[in-house]
Amino acid sequence: MPVLLITYDHSKMSPMVDPVPNFVKEYKHVQLSESSYAIETDEKTMTIFHKIMPFLSSNAYLFIVTLTQPFTGQGMEHVSEWLRKRLPED
After folding, report:
1. How many domains does the chain fold into?
2. Which end of the chain is more exposed for a tag (fewer CB within 10 A), N or C?
3. Contact 82, 30 (CB under 8 A)
4. pTM of the full predicted structure?
5. Maximum CA extent, the chain
6. pLDDT tens-digit profile of 19-61?
7. Closest to 32 measured CA to CA, from 68, 82, 89
8. Better pLDDT: 59 or 83
9. Residue 11 above 70 pLDDT?
10. Which range marks the domain in which residue 16 is found?
């Protein structure tokens, strides 16, 4: 199943009303950073974009990107393991 990266400008949102963490709970997911998540879904990038945008302010930044291997990163090992198990080879 494809994996999409959701990344947005967390600084333009109130942490008390950030809807994205609740949105990603509907999917198998892993959090990469404060405002970046990888989700497993058959939905298209545009579909996810249109689902999230109504919750964000008009000046917020949002990108949805399809992920593939290889990848390189530094962070929590469980994140790298989650990605290694799910991302297809490029």
Report:
1. 1
2. C
3. yes
4. 0.89
5. 38
6. 888 899 999 999 999 889 999 999 999 999 999 988 887 788 8
7. 82
8. 83
9. no
10. 3-86
